Structures are given as C-alpha cells and as structure tokens.
Amino acid sequence: MDLESLPISNLPEMAETWQQTINWQPSQEEQSQLQRLYQLILAGNLQLNLTRITEPEEFWEKHLWDSLRGMAPQQQFISTLQDKTKLIDIGTGAGFPGLPIAIVFPNCQVTLLDSTRKKINFIDQVLTNLSLNNGKTLVGRVEEIGQQNQHRQQYDLATIRAVGTVSACAEYTLPLLKKDGLAVIYRGSWTREEEKSLENAVKQLGGVVELIEEFTTPLAHSIRHCLYLRKVENTPSKFPRAVGVPTQKPI
Ligand code: SAM
C-alpha cells in the first residue's frame, strides 16, 4: 500500500464546515500539513498502536476538527498575549489535540507530553517532517512533571483529552499553569453531578470553572463537551500528588 497516496479526500470540501463551526478557514499550507499529519499517522500505525481512528472522515472529525474545536473560544486569548503562548498537551498520545494546535497556531509554543517513550519518538519524527518549530516533546508522568520547577506554573494553556477522570485532569493541568492560565479539558458526555465534584476539586487546586461548552460534531452529530478552568490562585504544593494517586483517590 502506498501511504503517500492516501489523501483525506474530503478535506478541501470541509472548508465550509470549518468556517461555520469554528469560524476558521484553513490556508493551503495548513490544509497540506493536516493532510501530511494524517499520512504520517497512518504510516506510524503500521509499527505502533497510535490510533484506531483511521478512516478519512472519522480522522478529520475526531482528531482534527475536535482538537481545534476545543481552542475555538480561545483564539482571541492566544492572539492577544504579548509573548509566545506556552501550551502543554498532557497525555498527547499520537499528538492530539497538541499537533493540530501547533499547526494552526504558530504563535503558540506547544509542549507535547506523554509517559510512553515510543509515542514521543513518533511525535519527534512528525515535528521534523512537518518542520514544526513551535513544538517540542517531553516524556514523563504528569504527576512528576507538575512538581518540577521548570514546568510548574510555567504554561498559559494546558490541554488534556482522554486521560482519566475529570478530577484527575484538573489535578494534572492546574499545577502546570501560570496564574490566570487556562486548562481545556476535552470530554465526551457530561452531567450536572460531575460538575459538582469538578467544582470542588478545582477549588482545592486554586482554580474556577470558567466555562462548560456543549457542542455537536459536524459529521456524526455526537455530543461533546469542553471544560475551561481558570487558575486564579497558586495551587497548593501537595498537588499533583504521587504517580497514580489522582486516579486512585480522586480529590
Ligand atoms: N490525548 C490523546 C488523544 O486524545 O487521542 C491520547 C489519549 S490516550 C487514550 C491517553 C494517553 O495519555 C496515553 O498515550 C498515555 O500514555 C498518556 N498518559 C496516561 N496517563 C499519563 C500520565 N500520568 N502522565 C503522562 N501521560 C499519561
């Protein structure tokens, strides 16, 4: 199979959908980088278990569109920052949502963190291949990274998708943020009960729940949510707790 010849054939036709749903028109260059990312992931999947989402439409919607949808309310936030916005994508896996964000927001300095060395090695190859100078990688457990001076309170934005419970996501993201920084937690379903326990956890971590957005995906019409947490105070030094504790003993 010649992987180079597998296009996301419908990407150009999706321009209108991008515009209508996230008010963004991909440039020719961005289109071809997203296209190339798809091809690299299909090729990488032959050696590594990167993703089960490989069909073009599904890949477009669940990986590309979803990654950028989470950032839609934040475009203003990013463009108005004086210095380069520092974003960390926690548990990035094959690079989602971090890689599409790095492609579309060149003023954003994206750190892609995962505990699996093989996935990070793959992402290093993608960064080189796409000449993405605004992306860098980090291998480790976020519970440990969040206690290191060079990472704690260093980021303007922290994204996290499909990595544990919502209170664990809050405990992973908030310690890494500067004061006034924002965590973006990507979720599928969401309930009022979860909102109460999230509010309690976020308060203990020095944050507030700023916005919860519900939206429908453009192709499969499934419901998704994005939770936006603002850091308003320093996070107590005991957070994040030791490796495994945030999931075993939720706040
Ligand atoms: N965010 C990607 C996505 O949405 O496609 C990947 C999600 S995958 C289900 C979860 C990833 O989080 C895995 O690659 C795993 O290695 C990583 N991960 C889980 N716990 C972690 C931790 N404590 N620190 C760093 N990475 C972690």
TrEMBL record:
Subcellular localization(s) per the UniProt record: Cytoplasm
One GO cellular component term: cytosol
Location (main, coarse): cytoplasm
Enzyme Commission no: 2.1.1.-
Family matches, as CDD domains: AdoMet_MTases
Pfam families (alphabetical): GidB (PF02527)
Positions bound to S-adenosyl-L-methionine: G91, F96, D114, S115, T116, V142, E143, R161
InterPro entries: rRNA_ssu_MeTfrase_G (IPR003682), SAM-dependent_MTases_sf (IPR029063)
Highest taxon of the lineage: Bacteria
Keywords: Cytoplasm, Methyltransferase, rRNA processing, S-adenosyl-L-methionine, Transferase
Signal peptide: none
Molecular-function annotations in GO: rRNA (guanine-N7-)-methyltransferase activity
Family classification: Belongs to the methyltransferase superfamily. RNA methyltransferase RsmG family.
Role summary: Specifically methylates the N7 position of a guanine in 16S rRNA.
Designated name of the protein: Ribosomal RNA small subunit methyltransferase G
Natural source organism: Richelia sinica FACHB-800
